[in-house]
Write a sequence for this structure.
């Protein structure tokens, strides 16, 4: 991932040159729906960019690492991430092999960023992930919430999909309450983190996307 100070168009275009065969990163092409044209990412900046730290990678087919980027509309990527692709690979090269980790993916903008009354909609929750697997990008652990594709409602603008990685305390059994298991929306994520003494994330990243026909 690019450093925060370099997450600008020039840096993204330079990165695109090194990612031939997957998807280029930079600014979206002026011909977003023409598959014959090169498709670029636009990197996040400002407060949204500052959320990304720790070199955490979230990797989808064709796109590669989408951390700290907008999902472009070209090549139907927004539709495919919402309708076709399954769970991404998650890679954290700094993971300690002897430790276990907790992965959380949430949408804090449900149903919209302007009115997030169902914020922290839970899209994925996995505990007991071995550090050795995270180093290679394989998420293998205890799945408490199956992966749910990003599906922003029509005309709700961009949604942030935030991936947080926590170091799991030794010998700590983590579980959702019966009430939490029956609902994904309006999840009290902070209370969950506090209850199981997860502390601050060791790494975090996010991508932004919106309804694919908007």
């Amino acid at each position: 991932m690019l450093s925060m100070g370099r997450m600008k168009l020039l840096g993204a275009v330079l990165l695109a040159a090194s990612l031939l065969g997957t998807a280029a990163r930079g600014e979206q092409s002026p011909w977003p729906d023409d598959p014959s044209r090169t498709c670029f990412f636009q990197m996040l900046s400002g407060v949204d960019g500052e959320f990304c730290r720790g070199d955490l990678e979230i990797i989808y087919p064709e796109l590669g690492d989408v951390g700290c980027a907008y999902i472009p509309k070209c090549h139907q990527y927004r539709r495919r991430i919402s309708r076709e692709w399954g769970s991404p690979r998650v890679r954290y090269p700094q993971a300690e092999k002897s430790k276990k980790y907790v992965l959380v993916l949430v949408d804090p903008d449900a149903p919209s960023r302007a009115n997030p009354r169902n914020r922290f909609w839970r899209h994925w929750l996995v505990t007991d992930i071995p550090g050795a697997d995270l180093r290679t990008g394989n998420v293998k652990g205890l799945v408490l919430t199956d992966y749910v594709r990003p599906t922003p409602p029509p005309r709700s603008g961009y949604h942030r999909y935030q991936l947080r990685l926590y170091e799991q305390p030794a010998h700590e059994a983590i579980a959702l309450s019966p009430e939490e298991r029956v609902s994904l929306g309006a999840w009290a994520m902070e209370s969950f983190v506090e209850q199981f003494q997860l502390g601050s994330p060791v790494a975090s990243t996010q991508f932004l996307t919106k309804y694919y026909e908007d």
